[in-house]
């Protein structure tokens, strides 16, 4: 425990978490790259998925670049603080992870394809960090919106762990939990690397292909 609560690598309890607020974060209406809606309603038939794999700037770019992805947004989830700010998330006192929300057309790209990209875009064995980024907000996580997504996510975790075992790599620390509220991050974070091409990415990987 730190002087004022949990350390940045220890999940706070609900009682320890910051209270948050009712005001929803203001974000642009349209995706900076794709021109699609950033906020619902989304096109009929679209499905949603949520992933945490380190700094959300680089993670979001990996997903918006895929054919069949309609829209992406970055935000916070998996914790307790309603409508948290970036500064609050960085304090380690919200329990939130940095997430990418992916809106996709399942007739063009399947959830399994998104899972493959997730596993191959980061190192899921690092616990409460991703490379040099340290804290609960950088943990590996899949936040499922249905029983089918959970089944596919858990099967993919087992399959990727088998590949890591074969390569004598570590144990996966990725959490797979039901998706809770997704709180949009500040406008300047949305599609950050398209607006700042030389910006920090922070993603690595294990070098082991999945699937």
TrEMBL record:
The active site is at 55. Signal peptide: none annotated. Its EC number is 1.8.4.11. Residues 49-201 form the Peptide methionine sulphoxide reductase MsrA domain. InterPro entries: Met_Sox_Rdtase_MsrA_dom, Met_Sox_Rdtase_MsrA_sf, MsrA_MetSO_reductase. One of its GO terms (molecular function) is L-methionine:thioredoxin-disulfide S-oxidoreductase activity. One of its GO terms (cellular component) is cytoplasm. Belongs to the MsrA Met sulfoxide reductase family. Has an important function as a repair enzyme for proteins that have been inactivated by oxidation. Catalyzes the reversible oxidation-reduction of methionine sulfoxide in proteins to methionine. This is Peptide methionine sulfoxide reductase MsrA. It comes from Magnetospirillum moscoviense.
